[in-house]
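Forwarding these from the shared drive since the link keeps breaking.
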Amino acid sequence: DMLPGFVPCEECAAERDVTAAMERGAIAPGCPRCGPEVSIVDRSGLRVARGEEALRAAEVALGEGRIVAVKGVSGFHLMVRADDTVAVSELRRRAGCGDRPFPVLFSDQLAIRSGLGAAVVSRRELDEMSSPAAPIVLVRPPGGQLRGGISAEVAPHAPDLGCMLASS
């Protein structure tokens, strides 16, 4: 949906018929001048940090074992460090999802290869993850053993690990 009161900068407005976009209920494109903006809000919805400060605060929260909700294109993603068994267990408890496997978000293809240790991730699997569809791709760690400190609580009783790259 179009953000209430959203006014694009001149450059964005020139690139697109904003009136038509508003009539369709589409989100207008954003840029560094008119948005979107990285920010952190507290439980009451009050914005407490923006930009680089917000990114650092999220990084600290994850490092402290806290659960961070990240608003993405398709809704909120609940995140914890995959190598923090206590945090993964707490997320699992709060989400009430039993022992359903969680996907692991990697920053890039190199992180997938190094994070899974000796796991063989095919070029096809990496290309799938990098495609516009940005699917979760199941990868079977060699010998069924997770590497890179990934907690067994991420995917208890599952032979495969769901791997993904950020889609937005």
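-- next protein --
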Amino acid sequence: YNLLYEAFGWEIPTYVHCASVMITDPDTGTVRKMSKRKGDPSYEDLMAQGYLSEAVVNYVALLGWAPHGALSEREFFTLPELVDAFDISGISKSPSAFDMDKLNYFNAAYLRAMSPDEFAQAAEPYIRQAVKNPAYNPAAIAARCEKLTDIPEKVDFFDALPEYSAELFTNKKSKTTPEVSLNMLQAAAPALAALPGWTQEAIHDTLISLAGQLGVKNATLMWPVRIALAGKAVTPGGAGEICHILGRDET
């Protein structure tokens, strides 16, 4: 580098190097230097894995560097804020650790901070990987997540109900068993079918009212309805929301 600078007649700069970035090898559990040759992700890889650029930049900026003073406890910075806060004295001489869980934490926070419209726009390509039916509005089923590539698995039931075991209807917290769930579903189906208008508010109010009539907690009714609709224990929305999106006939 110095020979090139001299050849062009330029002033040789002062070089500043960050210490190594370490990562735990997922195969061996050992800690080693982060290396693309070892298969560790590049910026482009992280983008392809569903991370937001802003989250990656924010997290990576704090590897081997930390702000001073009043900003020392702060984690989240925009790029202009990082530029303003940067001081060379904040660079650490010790190796830093690249932690995927910490990156997931940053990414999830950035996703949550998006407006509904911004998130729906970012999520739509991932939703459409699993939900091909054009009748479903991606903005209505956008599922909050740690990274965008988590979305397809969360919403694929909108196109086709997956195979699932009746054991999913058992939930201690909701006080449900397959037998209890069957009774709840047999009561919920005609109540929902009789609704004059298929609005989310009407669906919600009907289910809450029905739980009261049956003398059970709301969750005892909502859990089996949601499982029957999605075939999954974890869904991007509650029973009422899923009913509304799927429509009366599918519900």
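The beta strands are 21-24, 31-33, 96-97. Residues 35 and 41 are 8 Å apart (CA to CA).

- D.
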